[in-house]
Amino acid sequence: MSRARGRARLPVVLVLPAALGLAFLLVPFVGLLVRTPWAELPRRLVSAEVGEALRLSLVCASLATVVCLLLGVPLAWVLARADLPGRGFLRALVTVPLVLPPVVGGVALLFVLGRRGLVGEHLDAWFGVSLPFTTAGVVVAEAFVAMPFLVISVEGALRAADLRYEEAAATLGASRLVVFRRVTLPSILPGLVAGTVLCWARALGEFGATITFAGNFPGETTTMPLAVYLALETDPDAAIVLSVVLLLVSVAVLAGLRDRWVRGAA
Known about the structure:
Elements: H1 2-8, H2 12-35, H3 41-45, H4 48-81, H5 87-94, H6 96-99, H7 102-113, H8 120-127, H9 135-160, H10 163-171, H11 176-187, H12 189-204, H13 208-213, H14 224-234, H15 236-265
Helix pairs in contact: 2-15, 4-9, 4-12, 9-12, 10-11, 12-15, 14-15
């Protein structure tokens, strides 16, 4: 009862700034939806330019998510379970791409994986592999920016998991790999799914690191965010259509994760 009364007594001095803050965040999206050429939307979506950017974005974001799963889940397990010196510092390093400007991440990737980079020059000389300004470079850039979302989500799920089930499976003779596959992964599945979806959505919307490391070549590296940037100068309606697609994807992701966040806050 007291909780309900506390919610009812909203001080005006806080309500007004809160309403302004909400309007500041939502009005731009309303303006975008108002300016959307809904009658031309189907035709725009199947146009060569928009369809190419959509296809490339979906493929690259999905491949980047697979890379993040293969590397990020073991990394999250190490951060959550392994007794390593400096584990807190390692965790901080993992979260650096979250706060680092994506353009800086792209520059860092370029100087490491470029043809004259620390690793890239050996890849080029030994295997003939060059990642910058290629579709593979898009995948690398998106994975670099998106992986922390997956790692943080999975690590949190691992820390919250009940270790007794894993210990019981181990006492019954299950190997570590079997325990991880049959016990650990099912127990952290909600966190894994949430992290995967967030990772995919972040990769889909990546711009700064992609344009810096992979460039902007139509059909090869021009993803939806890059196509929006280019279309603003020549075809604003196409830019609006691509922006609306990205907005709808973001809203769908948030709606899909809403129940998980509500349960966590309850």
